[in-house]
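Materials and Methods. Structural model of Transposase. The 42-residue sequence of Transposase from Novosphingobium pentaromativorans US6-1 was retrieved and submitted for structure prediction as follows.
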Amino acid sequence: MHEVAKRQDIAESPIYSWRTARRQAEEVASEPLTFNSYAAVP
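The predicted structure was written out as tokens:
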């Protein structure tokens, strides 16, 4: 996770939170989850 956070210039904690949330959502989702990337507008 460190390399991903460094590459994206963000802290590691949001990545871990996202992974946990995704696992929980996959348990209750009726369809497979997909990743949708986006860019922040400055």
